[in-house]
Amino acid sequence: MTIRVGNCSGYYGDRISAMREMLEGGDLDYLTGDYLAELTMLILGRDQLKDPSRGYARTFLRQVTDCFSLAQEKGVKIVANAGGVNPAGLAEALREAAQEQGLDVAIAHVEGDDLRHRTDELGGGDWGDVLTANAYLGAFGIAAALEAGADVVVTGRVTDASVVVGPAIHAHGWKRDDLDALAGAVVAGHVIECGTQATGGNYSGFRALDLSAPLGFPIAEIDADGSSVITKHESAGGAVTVDTVTAQLVYEIQGPAYGNPDVVTHLDSIELSQEGDDRVRISGVRGAPPPPTTKVCLNALGGFRNTVAFQLTGLDIPAKASWIRAQMDAALAADAPDEVEWHLDRTDTFDPATQAQATSVLHCHVRSSRPEPVGRSFSDAAVQVALASYPGFYLMAPPSKGAPFGEYRAAYVPQDTVPHVVVLPDGSHVDIAPPSETSPFEPNARVDEPPLASPPADTGETRAVPLGELAYARSGDKGGNANVGVWIPAGHPQRDAAYGWLAAELTPERVRELLPEAAELEVEVHALPRIAAVNVIIHGLLGAGVASSTRLDPQAKAVGEWLRARVVSIPATLIPVVGA
């Protein structure tokens, strides 16, 4: 038996029409949605602080309210982690919406992930005002809710893939020791959980796609052995290729072993093959016993911050930057912020044809545990020197009053100390037992794999070109770390040789050279030969996490494209015209 599991959301704020599109577009057995991220938990925690009845993804409530009847007509079960920090509140709101439409809908929710009562134990007691502390739960609670007849299952903080793994467990009757099957479903879930990122969204090879229609959302057809085919509705835009699937596989991962509360998935065991138009098969996935601990995402109010951006135009950019820095430092001395960061982006060019080409931007970021030093006094300091500072002074945007910011921290707790509770449609509770067999987690553990491809012995002529002429990339955030997956496209005529060159080129030392922001940071590089990829982890690039990062790109979404733009010397025989 094969089940068809669709996705209709990759984040809180994704396309609101996607649930209806997926239900109307073709056959499905289950429709899932991923609404949570580390930053989203902070946002929902602040929502609940203002209104205790909130704390869930309200867009999901709108979508399901609109689609209750359609889902029933199609016989599609809906599973989503949209409960955020208040899954019980979302379940109750869904019941009220169904009753208003005169519909009989069985709604269950999964809870137990909220560990705010254990803040001190988790290391948050001396950190700040902890808003959220949520353990990552697995998929067996979702499966139990479906087994009990639920039409809609909403959860708090389960792993992203769990919303897909749960339906597969239920449909195929898997047990805790079906590790390879569970691992295969985790991979399928990881591929489709970010929505249209599997069908061409955020994809380096986008120029080769038909972009005349909005990108469609993906579907995983999951077999009883855990293998799967990634596809989409025929009428949906975008494409499903080995490369669009690879792009999502290398997104926001760490080492070759991918930890999950139900199974450790060996990413280096994955085999991909193009089975037909918009059909990519995932097979060969190996699993191992899960770790004895599970991750906890903590978000706290880190204080208050503000930013001002000075525009520096024309000549003498360094001198202009030095002058305004001295003026601001003097103005802020009386009630100094806890932290002051300056970043000068030299975007000016020689002999500029436009004013934009003549302009660089100097950012001043400030943080404080109190709102006053980063509020009006900071903004006023920037404004009051306007006529007494460098020539051509102006600001990118009016200064603000400052705003609170959050900080992220991860902790780990034994799985058997975390409640995993299913609240069934009739109100009864079912406790989900933790895995009986666990094994210490080794993120760098590997399965037997083919030897690393070797670059040509005689490289001959080389050309200095952007790395992106040879490779694709996808990047994102994991707490304070940036992840960059880089791979050789499937259609490369000398893929093995090109991959051998790539794996030899992207050492930690070379990554630090190509990305100077990482020069003083720890960098890991992991080879994934079966998919011709390397995974790069840049520790600490995002500081204390997305909510507090002052980078131009705080979620590291474009770091991969930055890396592709760097010029390297590549053997001329390996350089195709990528994306043409």
- Quantity of strands, as a count: 26
State the oligomer. single chain
Mean of residue pLDDT?
94
Structural class: alpha+beta
Largest sheet: 11 strands, mixed
**Rg to the nearest angstrom?**
25 Å
What's the helical proportion of residues?
10-25%
Provide a brief overview of the structure.
The protein has 580 residues and is α+β, with helices and mostly antiparallel strands. The chain has helices at residues 18-25, 38-50, 58-74, 87-100, 140-147, 162-172, 179-192, 242-249, 317-332, 376-384, 495-505, 508-514, 559-565; strands at residues 2-7, 30-33, 77-80, 107-111, 129-135, 152-155, 218-223, 228-232, 257-258, 264-266, 271-276, 279-283, 286-288, 293-313, 339-345, 359-368, 394-395, 403-414, 421-423, 429-431, 462-466, 472-478, 481-487, 523-528, 533-538, 567-571. It has an eleven-stranded mixed beta sheet with strand order 11-12-8-7-1-2-3-6-4-19-20, sandwiched between helices. Strands 5, 14, 15, 16, 17 and 18 form a six-stranded antiparallel beta sheet that branches. The protein has a four-stranded antiparallel beta sheet with strand order 22-23-25-24, sandwiched between helices.
Question: What's the SSE blueprint?
Answer:
Blueprint: E1 2-7, H1 18-25, E2 30-33, H2 38-50, H3 58-74, E3 77-80, H4 87-100, E4 107-111, E5 129-135, H5 140-147, E6 152-155, H6 162-172, H7 179-192, E7 218-223, E8 228-232, H8 242-249, E9 257-258, E10 264-266, E11 271-276, E12 279-283, E13 286-288, E14 293-313, H9 317-332, E15 339-345, E16 359-368, H10 376-384, E17 394-395, E18 403-414, E19 421-423, E20 429-431, E21 462-466, E22 472-478, E23 481-487, H11 495-505, H12 508-514, E24 523-528, E25 533-538, H13 559-565, E26 567-571
Parallel strand pairs: 1-2, 2-3, 3-6, 4-6
Antiparallel strand pairs: 1-7, 4-19, 5-14, 7-8, 8-12, 9-10, 10-13, 11-12, 14-16, 14-17, 14-18, 15-16, 19-20, 21-26, 22-23, 23-25, 24-25
Helix pairs in contact: 1-3, 3-4, 5-6, 6-7, 7-8
